[in-house]
Amino acid sequence: MLSTILIVVLILVLIGALPTWGYSSSWGYGPGGIVGVLLVVVLVLALMGRI
After folding, report:
1. pLDDT above 70 covers what percent of the chain?
2. Which residues cross the membrane (predicted)?
3. CA distances from 25 to 3, 9, 35 (A)
4. Measured between alpha carbons, how far is 36 from 24 in angstroms, rounded to an integer?
5. Cα–Cα distances in Å, from 2 out to 14, 15, 31, 50, 51?
6. 21-48 tens-digit pLDDT
7. By C-alpha distance, which of 51, 50, 19 is closest to 35?
8. What pTM was computed for the model?
9. Residue 36 vs residues 23, 29, 41: alpha-carbon distances, Å
10. Contact assessment for residue 14 and residue 35, using Cβ atoms and an 8 Å cutoff
11. Closest alpha carbon to 16 in 4, 1, 34, 2
């Protein structure tokens, strides 16, 4: 249950951090990449049953 909520929140943050939005266009791909890596780590941990 907790891992599903965490994955959904990380996906929403990843969408918000993409540089296609007006407020985040000057950020570049750094924040989106960091959140993407966090999402992959959480997905792997959830699939392994650690979360």
Report:
1. 78
2. 27-48
3. 30, 21, 16
4. 16
5. 18, 20, 23, 11, 8
6. 666 667 777 777 777 788 888 888 888 8
7. 19
8. 0.61
9. 19, 10, 9
10. yes
11. 34
